[in-house]
Amino acid sequence: xxxxxxxxxxxxxxxxxxxxxxxxxxxxxxxxxxxxxxxxxxxxxxxxxxxxxxxxxxxxxxxxxxxxxxxxxxxxxxxxxxxxxxxxxxxxxxxxxxxxxxxxxxxxxxxxxxxxxxxxxxxxxxxxxxxxxxxxxxxxxxxxxxxxxxxxxxxxxxxxxxxxxxxxxxxxxxxxxxxxxxxxxxxxxxxxxxxxxxxxxxxxx
Length: 205
Description:
Blueprint: E1 2-5, H1 12-21, E2 26-29, H2 32-37, E3 40-43, H3 49-59, H4 61-71, E4 75-78, H5 80-84, E5 88-89, E6 95-96, E7 103-107, E8 117-122, E9 124-125, E10 140-145, E11 147-151, E12 157-163, E13 166-174, E14 177-180, H6 188-203
Parallel strand pairs: 1-2, 1-3, 3-4, 4-14, 5-7
Antiparallel strand pairs: 5-6, 7-11, 8-10, 9-12, 12-13, 13-14
């Protein structure tokens, strides 16, 4: 079972339906006990970094995510959920994150003509990873974000995307910890394939 962490932010049902579309068991939950029993977790998210961390901390679900990471259970962060895996963000002030990956979340620079980055864009894989299984060489996914990760460890960056001259990490991974800046649940065939690949990682644990 894959637990979709409900901390009050995110298009939770869309993510749940996407996993069901690829015949993967998944359920939305905010119950600590239930999430602790799940074989893998998905941390979705839409909105501001500070609000996301407030939601996780106030519900105690930050502890569940950190404990799952310590146990080696697969975790997939989506959009804001990926950003929350890092050490902090500059969005509307300085905020600390979960600290599971090294790096910080920054706003696109003023040189970028249109922010947020919205729409379809390609991902260039930096190294092989199970999430890329069965995908095109440069698959397209759907993005909506004004902030992006600056990773402190190049080894954690497994895919990058270029937007108006800025190249940023769009997929990160370390061990059983994964993050995608885009929305797989809105990315049609490629997105569903990536979610199916994550489910295979969970089932093969």
